[in-house]
Here is the input.
Amino acid sequence: MKRTRRFKRVAANLKKPVPSSRPNYAGGEGEETRPRQRFESSITRVKPVSESQPQPGSNSAPISDISSDKMTILPFGFFQIDALELAPRLLGKFLRRDDVVLQITEVEAYRPNDSACHGRFGITARTAPVFGPGGHAYVYLCYGLHTMLNVVADKEGNGAAVLIRACAPISGLETIQQRRRQKTDKPVLLTGPGKIGQALGLSTEWSNHPLYTSGGLEILDGPAPEKLLIGPRVGIEYASPEHVHALWRFAIAGTAWISAPKNTLRPP
Here is the structure.
């Protein structure tokens, strides 16, 4: 049974959750391990069990006043759209596995015919999940070390996904710290795609897992951010110039929970 987690109010710059009936498409992956950045109090602050509550404006972990057990799992139809549409819509949504709940703060879109997408290799044992229907996980190892979580997008056969680059901790901070082997509630804990997979305790065996069903790993509805940042994707120098410079990286504006480099992000 899942334990009830309590949350503080979500940051002022986030709107109310969108209806769970809204469709969405995701696509992509990323081949990188990057430096990380921080995320300000625009998302919520998690109060460590043994520590005093962080002061407003600090970069400690965020919290919310809603029980995750009352959150709605996003439906299958939410993911059946282009990765470029799905990517920004995933910002503010929640990833949940057991007692760990993370709020998505940064993503990258990877589309069909994208020279930076794993789908360019065609269907292989590794990439087969990318060509499945939207709403499933695509998990792969970067440099044989870092577990990267992607959300598959669009209709079956398209080959697209959204890479989860950074999150803010909402629940299960101690579990996250144990998995990350890092006793901190600062943004360095979860700002980078490899850190997300580690914090959730994922392996490549989670590839093809449905994220729209109860149990295991789920994506829950959450507040849409009022303002976004966009920029080119990270670590795809091998791709064509068109795709290297495409502004397909999205992050919540005003938060420190964003991975490096931050200086390539700007308002739309």
